[in-house]
Amino acid sequence: MTKILTRMGDNSNVEFTRDELRQEFIEGSEFAAKKAKIPPLTENEIDWLVDMFAAPTRIWGVQRGNEVVMTKDGCVNALNSSQMSSGVVAPVNREVGVRLFESMLGFDSMEVSHNDYSVKPQRFLKKLEMLHVEILMETTIFPLLYGFMPNLGLYFKTDGPFDNPYDLMQQGKIKESQETQEAAGVKCLEDCIEMSDAMLEMGADGIDYDTVASTGDGEFAAVLKSTEHVAKETGLPVEIGMSTEMVTGVHGSIEYNGKRLAGMWPHQQLQVCEEAGVSIFGPVSTTNSKKSTPWNLGKALVFVKSCTDIAKVPIHPNVGMGVGGVPMFETPAVDVVTRCSAAMIEIGKADGL
Amino acid sequence: MHMAHLLASSMGGIRAAGDLVARMQLSKKMRIDEAKKYVADKLHVSPLDLSDPHEMRLLREELDIGTVTGVPGVAKGIAAKARIAQLLDIEINCVEQFKKKTGLHY
Q: Which residue, A136, A205, B43, B95, has fewest beta-carbon neighbours within 10 Å?
């Protein structure tokens, strides 16, 4: 029986029969549908995906005319950073790197950010960041956002001044754990607003908040309030890229506009982000490295479709390393990346990536 | 990985009209079809042409809104963005900041 070569979530090779391949998509789809109580992929969509993965070509792409626009996180980390960011340590600064992304690589937009990508360390370099944004605004043509991770975790001991909520929870001090998250959230919000305002003053085309809710619902709340500020006070766009498919309830009781943030799935995250004034929303589906890429892609597409079906703003699913069906590996293979990319648009109906 | 996504799905930025469509998504929250239609109407082309580097390369030079390859005299940087803002009838933040700084009005 003919075997179809594809990959696992860790980028290693795996072979399936056509029926096994179909079953992988179905199981991934049903996993997401059951978790978030949303519709699974249809028979036609599964057929399309099976045909795509069964085709022997190395590269896949969208149909001509269905191309979308790319937004980017992490600035030029892929060029000048280390393995941590899948970087190749090229001796390239941001001014050169951004121009290369614009002209040589043909990106539709880009983000300026510091290699140390969290808002807490970036705030100490505010003037330097402002200068880089100001200079790049004069020399580039494509839209240029300024971005960072809110990364509330850095505000807790031992990295920051606030008591660590995880330590407090282990001691059974739940109320104290919630209070420290609320206090740290206020400081994180101040920093997000300070950096956002500064970069917009330099002419940035918008702000990108990346890996939002990595430290749970407290961080998500801070970002929603910062988005409100940017959208309402400046009228400039905010892109929110999430960190995971479900918001972890580290606090458990934080609400936004009467909605509890803990436990929110992508289509629910989208709704509160829209209420806050977001311009582009980036849902995430994390890759399970023990499952196949078809399984992971089936799961990711169900989450993305639940957003694109109801969105009032553009949806740009995260399709980097380890998200959006893409394998968790520092150099994910093009045979699966191009398929995940095309599937997000043709099946997921994404407005960008 | 970036190259894989670009090859598979991207409009190609300033190689074509991807930057223009991206601006409409950001500034007006337009979904992709609406953003493409808006830009296509402003450029008097079809939405299909927007991703075509052949059609768009010639048009971008004609409209003087920046080209992917280096051509002396063609608008670059802030000058290209000022022309893009006028063409698309939108405000671009850095262009507005530039006008404030220089006292230029157009």
A: B43
**Separation of alpha carbons B30 and B23, rounded Å:** 9
Burial class for A27, CB neighbours closer than 10 Å (0-12, 13-18, 19+): middle
- Cβ neighbours of A136 (radius 10 Å): 24
Query: How high is the pLDDT of residue B75?
Result: 97
Tell me if chain B has a CB within 8 Å of the CB of A46: no
Minimal C-alpha gap between A254 and chain B (Å): 28
Give the predicted TM-score (pTM) of the model.
Answer: 0.96
Q: Which residue has the tokens 């900041």?
A: B97
Confidence (pLDDT) at A85: 77
Whether residue A248 is predicted with pLDDT greater than 80 in this model: the reply is yes
Residue contact A279–B26, C-beta within 8 A: yes
Which of A62, A145, A239 is opposite residue B8, by nearest beta carbon? A62
Encoded tokens for A207: 């702000």
pLDDT at B17 over 90: yes
Q: Do residue A68 and residue B1 have CB atoms under 8 angstroms apart? A: no
Express each pLDDT in A33-92 by its tens digit. Answer: 999 999 999 999 999 999 999 999 999 999 999 999 998 888 888 888 887 777 888 898
B chain contacts of residue A61, beta-carbon cutoff 8 Å:
7-9
ipTM over 0.90: yes
Cis preceding linkage at A158, omega within 30 = yes
d(CA A84, CA A86) in angstroms, rounded, equals 6
Nearest to B11 by CA among A2, A236, B23: B23
The pLDDT value given to residue A88? 84
Place of tokens 């939002």: A212
Residue B9 and residue A138 in contact, taking contact as beta carbons nearer than 8 Å: no
Q: Are A346 and A48 in contact, with CB atoms under 8 Å apart?
A: yes
- Residues on chain B touching A351 (C-beta within 8 angstroms): 25, 31-32, 35
* A chain contacts of residue B2, beta-carbon cutoff 8 Å: 72, 78, 105, 107
Q: List A8's β-bridge partners, or say none.
A: A292
pLDDT digits (tens, 9 = 90+) for A181-216: 999 999 999 999 999 999 999 999 999 999 999 999
Q: For chain A, report the end-to-end CA distance as a whole number of angstroms.
A: 36
Residue of A nearest to B69 (CA): A103
